[in-house]
Amino acid sequence: MRFITLLCAMGWLGFSLPLLANTPISQDEFVAQVSVAGNTPSVTLVADGPVRLDAMVLQALQSQPTALSTLRIDWQNSRLFCLHEPFPLAKTLLRTLAEWQNRVPEPQASAWQQLRNELRKRHFAKRALITLDPDVIRVVSGHNPLLRGQFSLYLPLLGEHQTVTVLGAVRHSEPQVWQATFSAGDYAQRAQWLQPTLGEVSVIQPNGDVETHPVGYWNAQPLTILPGAIIYVPFSAAFGSTIDRTELAHLNQQVVELLRHQLPRE
Questions:
Q1: CA distance 52 to 71
Q2: Which of helix, strand or coil describes residue 130?
Q3: By the 8 A CB rule, do 52 and 26 touch?
C-alpha cells in the first residue's frame, strides 16, 4: 500500500483531532495523524486502502523530519485512537457526575468536584488497546490487523513520561514525579487519599492495562507502577453518601474505563 505523507503545521495532537475527525473519507480509505512528542510538525498519513498496523507505525517513524529508530520510542506510552468509532462514555459519565454531585457529602464532595474538573480538562477518544511496537507485532499472531478509517497515533520518545497521576477520592490530583521504588499506596498517600483504611486502588498502566493494587496496611504489595500511569482511588459509601453502593461501584468502574482512553495531554 502506497502512502501519501502530509505535514501538518498544527503541531499538537489534541487541537487537530476534531478537524481530522470531521473530515469525511470513504469506508476503504485510511487516514492517520501522527504526533511524536518533542517533534513538530505532526504528520498525516493517507492511503487509498486498508493498511497493516506495522506498516503504519514504520511509515510514521520514517516520515518524521529526522527518521526515528524504533529503539527511541516509548512503546508502553504509545497510543492509537480510532476516530471513526463513536465514544460517548465521556459525555455520559460527566453528566452522571454532575447529577450526583449533591448526593455526595464531605469530605468526598470536594474530591468529587475535583474529579469532574479534571475530566473536563481532558480529551478522550476510542483507543485501540493493542501493542504498537513493530518488533512485537511481527512475531505475535493476530497483532497486525488491517486498519480502515481515521486514526490518531501518538509516539512519545523514551524519557518523555516521568510522572504518575492520582485521581478520585483524594485531596490533590497534581502529577507526581515517578519514582521506581514507589507503590500505588505511596502515590495515593501523597495525594492525601480520603480513606486510610482503603484496601485497593485501580492502576491504569500507560499501555491501557488495568490492574488492582492492594494498598491497605494489612494487604499492601509493592507492585510495579510504570511512568505515565494513572492511579484511581475509588469513592465509597463509607461517608454517608446517598448513592447506592452498586451504583457507586459501577461509576468507579466507568471512570477507570474512561481513563484508559485519554488522549495525550500537552
A1: 20
A2: coil
A3: no
Residue 218 CB contacts under 8 Å (≥ 6 apart), including other chains:
199
Spell out the domains of the chain, with CATH numbers in brackets: 2-83+124-153 (no CATH), 86-123+159-258 (3.10.560.10)
Q: What's the CA gap between 93 and 250, in Å, rounded?
A: 11
Instruction: Identify the pLDDT of residue 1.
Output: 54
CA distances from 150 to 15, 128, 131 (A): 16, 12, 18
Backbone torsions φ then ψ of 177, nearest 5 degrees: -65, 130
Give the per-residue pLDDT at 141.
Answer: 78
pLDDT in tens, 8-20: 544 333 334 443 4
Q: Decide if pLDDT at 135 tops 60.
A: yes
pTM: 0.89
